[in-house]
């Protein structure tokens, strides 16, 4: 599958991978910081953004898609940064490109199968919007608000609400495909131990990386380092971009 992507800057290559319901733009603050010193590739994962839709949505599939972008650009070695679901895609790439990765950086995600389903209200809101004729974002937000109470979450989701080729407005991501594959998204096929340079960055108030996940992290990423960003949640890179950018640059430039 040929993903939509954008390239900024020059230098050593860093691939940025967004999370569930996102697109390449979601890591834009990070991209703007990194492109001053690096070549940054921001991708839209399958079923998201401007990339094609598919019923297949495994982490190995998504990791293969991203690696295909790197290969299309004739890049041998690169680093990868993934947030949330994109962090799992980045971790899955360690089995496909073990010797090609310079650095692996995972933002607020653990290599585990999550048991708590956190997105049922979001899916209900997406379906609510899709069930009505909607011609502008303000109308879409009214229907979305029937299920999604947090204004910030609604604004994040509405970034992917746009005019389609048909002329009608709709979601860029594949709503039905994401719902059908939700157990896979929450799950995790454990990878072989990866001993390369690895950094996990956790939002202090987030529950995506917990003490009980340490064993799984150390088993699969035995040389991983960890950094906690104080007073942030799951969207740590948006809440404290300067801090997260500094942590990432320090890790990239460490001897």
TrEMBL record:
Keywords: Hydrolase. Residues 13-241 form the AB hydrolase-1 domain. The keyword Hydrolase applies. GO terms for molecular function: hydrolase activity. PANTHER family: PROTEIN ABHD11. This is Esterase. It comes from Photobacterium ganghwense.
């Amino acid at each position: 599958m040929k993903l939509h992507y954008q390239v900024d800057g020059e230098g050593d290559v860093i691939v940025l991978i967004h999370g569930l319901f996102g697109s390449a733009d979601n890591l834009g603050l990070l991209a703007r910081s990194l492109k001053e010193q690096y070549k940054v590739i921001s991708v839209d994962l399958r079923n998201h953004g401007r990339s094609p839709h598919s019923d297949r949505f495994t982490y190995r599939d998504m990791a293969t898609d991203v690696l295909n972008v790197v290969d299309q650009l004739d890049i041998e070695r690169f680093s990868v940064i993934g947030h949330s679901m994109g962090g799992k895609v980045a971790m899955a790439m360690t089995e496909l490109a073990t010797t090609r990765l310079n650095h692996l950086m995972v933002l607020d995600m653990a290599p585990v199968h999550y048991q708590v389903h956190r997105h049922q209200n979001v899916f209900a809101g997406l379906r609510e919007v899709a069930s009505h004729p909607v011609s502008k974002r303000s109308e879409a937000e009214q229907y979305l608000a029937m299920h999604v109470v947090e204004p910030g979450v609604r604004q994040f989701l509405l970034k992917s609400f746009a005019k389609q080729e048909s002329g009608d407005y709709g979601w860029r991501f594949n709503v039905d495909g994401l719902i059908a594959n939700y157990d896979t998204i929450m799950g995790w096929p454990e990878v072989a131990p990866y001993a390369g340079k690895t950094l996990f960055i956790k939002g202090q108030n987030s529950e995506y990386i917990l003490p009980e996940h340490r064993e799984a992290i150390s088993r699969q990423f035995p040389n991983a380092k960890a950094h906690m960003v104080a007073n942030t949640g799951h969207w740590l890179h948006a809440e404290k971009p300067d801090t997260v950018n500094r942590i990432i640059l320090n890790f990239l430039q460490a001897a």
